[in-house]
Amino acid sequence: MPLFLRRLATVASAALLSAGLVSAPAAHAVVGGGTVAVPPPWLAAIGTPAFFIRPSGQFCGGALVAPTKVVTAAHCVDFLRAVPNLLAATFGRADLSKKDGESVQVKSIWVQPNFRETEFKGETVEHHDVAVLTLSRPVLDRVTVPLIDRAGQYPPGAPAQVYGWGTTSETDLVNDRLRGATIPLVADARCSAAYGDSFDHRDMVCAGSTHGDTCQFDSGGPLIVQGRLAGVTSWAYGCAREGYPGVYTRLAPFTLPLA
Q1: What is the pLDDT of residue 213?
Q2: Of 1, 29, 162, 214, whose CA is between 20 and 30 Å from 184?
Q3: Which residues pair with 111 in a beta bridge?
Q4: Looking at the annotation, which residues are catalytic?
C-alpha cells in the first residue's frame, strides 16, 4: 500500500478506535468509467456511523444475492464479527452525501474460515477474501444478482463490470459518487508474473488496466461477468498501475452459506 494510503488507513483506524472498535479495514472508487446515477438494485454500500471520515460511513461495497444475504470481502468486515449490528448495507444511494435509498442493519457476519493476510511490496494481500452478511430483515423489493456457478469460467479479455464509491485515483481521497466501469479479465499467467507467489489462481482472479480499475474504498464491491457475481474487489498494488491489475476474489470455487 502506498505511503499516503497507509496514512489514510491510520486515520481510519484512529476513528474506529475512538468508537471502541479494534481496527479498521484496509479498503481497496473506480478508476476510469463514469458516474452512475441509478445504482443497480442489488448494489450495497457497506458502512458504519463510526467511520465518520466517509459520507454515510461507507468503506466497502457488497452485492445482494438473496433477500437477507450480502456478499462482500472478508477483510472489510472481519474486524466487526463480534459487533455486526454496527454495520449497515445501504441500497439505492448513488451519492453518499445524500440520505436517499434504503439502509438495513446487519445481524451476523460469516467470514470464509481460511481467510488470511500476507504482504506484497507493503500492500496487504487477501487470501480467501469473501464474507456473507446476514441482514436484520429481508429486502424483498430489490432484484438480487445471481452468483457464478461452480463451473463458471473467467476467460482472459472478457469484459467485466465493476462498481464503487471509492477514489478515482491514488491521489483522490474525496470521491463519494458511485462510479462504474467495464474492465477486461486478465490471464492468470500475467497476474502471476506481476504478483509472484502472492497471486493464487485457486481463489483469485485479476482484471483491469491502466484505463480502468478499482481503488480505495471499493473493496467488497462486485466483479460482474456475463451478468453474474463472479468476484469481489480484494487487493492490488496501487490503482491502475502499469503491470499491476486489480485482484478479485474468485467466487466460483466457494460454497457460501446463503440458506
Answers
A1: 94
A2: 1
A3: 131
A4: 75, 129, 219
- The 10s digit of each residue's pLDDT in 176-201 is 899 999 999 999 999 999 999 999 99
With 50 as the cut, is the pLDDT of residue 207 above it? yes
CB 135 within 8 A of CB 204: no
Cβ–Cβ under 8 Å, residues 197 and 130: no
**Domain closes at, from 119, 135, 151:** 135
Spatial distance between the Cα atoms of 44 and 61, rounded to a whole number of angstroms: 6
C-alpha cell at 76: 472489510
At 49-107, the pLDDT tens digits run 888 889 999 999 999 999 999 999 999 999 999 999 999 999 999 999 999 999 999 99
Q: How far apart are CA 240 and CA 253, in angstroms?
A: 26
- Are 228 and 131 contained in the same domain? no
- Residue 13 near residue 7 (C-beta atoms within 8 A): no
Residue 115 belongs to domain spanning: 3-26+41-135
Distance CA 47, CA 78 (A): 13
Provide mean pLDDT across the span 198-213: 96
List Cα–Cα distances, 193 to 159, 187, 207, in angstroms: 21, 10, 14
Q: What is the pLDDT of residue 25?
A: 40
CA–CA separation, 5 vs 25, rounded Å? 12
In angstroms, the CA 45 to CA 188 distance is: 29
CB-CB contact of 96 with 56 (8 Å): yes
